[in-house]
From TrEMBL:
Subcellular location: Cytoplasm
Name the UniProt record assigns to this protein: Chaperone protein HtpG
Annotated ranges, domain Histidine kinase/HSP90-like ATPase: 28-189
Binding site for ATP: E35, N39, D81, M86, S101, G102, Q129, F130, G131, I132, G133, F134, T179, R375
Length: 673
């Protein structure tokens, strides 16, 4: 009894995506084949691994391969693998929906692009950025049919869609184990980069270009012209004749041939990581990068490593050009695949690369591990730890070299991954120096250029013993903060640290070349040079003149400030807030609060600029004894200091009320006089 296929609807966002594919103007339509072969190769890897782990799995793994079957008459191309296959539910989940982690992000980008009318460039960029895997088949096919049977199951499933709003699901009792994807191809349209994908020369070319390194054989039936084998008796007779005849006449005689169909392996299957770098072209590396990273960009840097001796392993690593959308997501994965003697063992092997280098993609092939090594064993393994140490150092040194030899590429790297890279400063103590050396920072020295710490130190003023920095939410906020004033006036360079991660490492007691890091918004800063020392006496007098006001302010503002003192940081603003050397900065407090932690309020010191007319006037009014009237002014001075550094007032409405009151009074006072 045959049952009619079930019709399912695609999710709304999948429909949008398919629509994008069906009407794709993406110039690299050829890449659909790479996607199908990549999926097939993954499926073979999975089956091989499954059969190692599950001894009861009754499958034949002796001839795992991929086969391309073009049919010029029917205008179809089928890509077949005898890998792990999919169950009916998996087909619906994996193929019928966008189950992958990028879905939300992709959906957002699609919606945005749609709002803007989905320009050609936007569509191209989306495809390039996300790589749409299986769906890319709809760039070249009017109809896609997938027949699959999961290893260990008896019944197969057929999935079929023409890329409109629906797909059908059907049972296939006699499906071979593995997956076959048949594309009913769109008409050839070379102007739109749609080629004849039933042409074997074209297919061979595409496999060579995109998938040559795939570790499984990619086979195709090819027609070959071969000499006709003659029966032995005829051969003997010919042999005798030959002895008598002249060579000349032999050449004239056309050899008898016939056309046979032979199955040929189209890819070389050579593991690129095992080849010397000089034997691999940039294009080959690029395609391999795309295969392992599931990305569609080109690598910014390729790193090869061959270790011999106690631990034998080879590594081929890439630094991407574009950050993946999930770089900062919780489930963002480390991108290293582990192989043991050319056999794929696992992807996302976090034991091989620290989390802060999660943008590095590639392969490590270790010779001396067991094939069924588990993650638990890996965590304990001395060899794995040694490999990880070496790879980490190699990646850091490569990045440092890139900075010195290819500054433009380095800048791309830094803009894409600098924030992640700096996470290492927080938790990789062994490599901290190397990481600091490899990093660059914004500073007041230049608006565009970033500086190394070594260059900063080279520009330090004589007698300066610390690397000055300020953290904040943006360059603008930091540069305009009152804390900057005296530094600007004296021409002292300050590092501008505006990434959230900066707060973490810079406050962890780190030093560079014997120089500590000193926040300009924390602790006492002594910027006085020798000349100023003469003014020491004048200062003392000033302190005396303000002593009572400072005491009174400390008391009046005791809910918000730890103390009030005169400042040597300020030249233009009336006041600023300064934390203790080890206190938490307001930015860090905000970060913690945003992550749901409750923190006691950190009180900071209020520093006053004794030369500012407002502070001078305040001191005079205080000396004149109108203390109660001065309370609102004191609150305003504090509030202004918070706002000036880009902070948030605890009670903005209250601040506005006090300000309105003071302004009204000043007008009233003005009109009276
Ligand atoms: N030939 C196949 N055999 C078994 N499973 C497959 C096959 N092709 C696809 N799949 C399953 O469907 C999922 C979705 O495939 P798709 O190509 O859309 O994305 P992907 O391979 O996960 O990611 P990407 O395309 O970015 O590499 C795969 O992850 C895999 O689980």
């Amino acid at each position: 009894m045959s049952v009619a296929p079930e019709v399912h609807e695609f999710q709304a966002e999948t429909r949008q995506l398919l629509d994008l594919m069906v009407h794709s103007i993406y110039s690299n339509k050829d890449s659909f084949l790479r996607e199908l072969i990549s999926n097939a190769s993954d499926a073979l890897d999975k089956l091989r691994l499954e059969s190692l782990v599950d001894k009861d799995l009754d499958v034949d793994t002796s001839d795992l391969h991929i086969k391309l079957v073009p049919d010029a008459e029917k205008r179809t191309l089928t890509v077949i693998d005898n890998g792990i296959g999919m169950s009916r539910d998996e087909v619906i989940e994996l193929i019928g929906t966008l189950a992958r982690s990028g879905t939300a992000e992709l959906r957002r980008s699609l919606a945005e692009a749609r709002e803007k009318g989905l320009s050609e460039a936007a569509a191209e960029e989306l495809i390039g950025q996300f790589g749409i895997g299986f769906y890319s088949t709809f760039m070249v096919a009017d109809k896609v049919t997938l027949v699959t049977r999961k290893a260990g199951e008896s019944v197969g499933t057929r999935w079929e869609s023409t890329g409109d709003g629906t797909y059908t699901i059907d049972e296939v009792p006699d499906a071979p184990q593995g997956t076959a994807v048949t594309l009913t191809l769109k008409p050839v349209d070379t102007e739109n980069h749609l080629y004849d994908y039933t042409d074997k020369t074209k297919l061979r070319q595409l496999v060579k270009r995109y998938s040559d390194f795939i570790a499984w054989p990619i086979r195709m039936d090819v027609e070959k012209t071969v000499p006709v084998e003659k029966p032995e008796s005829e051969k003997d007779a010919e042999g005798a004749e030959k002895e008598d005849a002249e060579k000349e006449s032999d050449e004239k005689k056309a050899p008898e041939t016939k056309t046979v169909i032979e199955e040929e392996t189209v890819n070389s299957m050579k593991a690129l990581w095992a080849k010397p770098r000089s034997e691999v072209s940039d294009e080959e590396y690029q395609e391999f990068y795309r295969h392992v990273s599931h990305a569609w960009d080109s690598p910014l840097e390729t790193i090869t490593l061959q270790a011999e001796g106690t631990f034998e392993y080879q590594a081929l690593l890439f630094i991407p050009t574009q950050p993946p959308f999930d770089l900062f997501m919780r489930d963002s994965k480390v991108g290293i695949h582990l192989y043991v003697k050319r056999v794929f063992i696992m992807d996302d092997c976090e034991e091989l690369m620290p989390e802060y280098l999660r943008f590095v993609k590639g392969v490590v092939d270790a010779a001396d591990l067991s094939l069924n090594v588990s993650r638990e064993i890996l965590q304990q393994d001395r060899q794995i730890r040694a490999i990880r140490r070496r790879l980490t150092k190699k990646v850091i040194s490569t990045i440092t070299e890139m900075r010195d030899s290819r500054p433009e590429d380095y800048r791309k790297f830094w803009d894409a991954f600098g924030r992640v890279f700096k996470e290492g400063l927080v938790n990789d103590f062994d490599n901290r120096d190397a990481l600091l050396k490899a990093s660059v920072f914004q500073s007041t020295n230049s608006e565009e250029d970033l500086t190394t710490l070594a260059d900063y130190i080279g520009r330090m003023k004589s007698g300066q013993d610390a690397i000055y920095y300020m953290t904040g939410e943006s360059r603008q906020q930091i540069v305009n903060s009152p804390h900057m004033e005296a530094f600007r006036a004296k021409g002292i360079e300050v590092l501008i640290l505006s990434d959230p991660v900066d707060e973490m490492w810079v406050t962890s007691g780190v030093e560079f070349e014997g120089k500590r890091f000193q926040s300009i918004a924390k602790g006492a800063v002594d910027l006085d040079d020798d000349e100023d020392e003469k003014d020491e006496k004048a200062k003392e007098e000033q302190n005396k003149a303000f002593e009572e006001l400072l005491k009174w302010l400390t008391e009046t503002l005791s809910d918000d400030v730890s103390e009030t003192r005169l400042s040597s940081r300020l030249t233009e603003s009336p006041a600023c807030l300064v934390g203790d050397t080890w206190s938490m900065s307001p930015q860090l407090e905000k970060l913690y609060r945003a992550s749901g932690q409750t923190l006691p309020k950190t009180k900071r010191a209020l520093e006053l600029n004794p030369d500012h007319p407002l502070i001078v006037a305040l001191n005079k009014a205080f000396a004149d004894g109108e203390r109660d009237k001065l309370v609102p002014t004191a609150k305003l001075v504090y509030g202004m200091a918070v706002i000036a550094e880009g902070g948030e007032l605890e009670d903005p409405a209250e601040f506005a009320k006090v300000l309105a009151g003071q302004l009204t009074e000043s007008f009233a006072g003005g009109s009276e006089s």
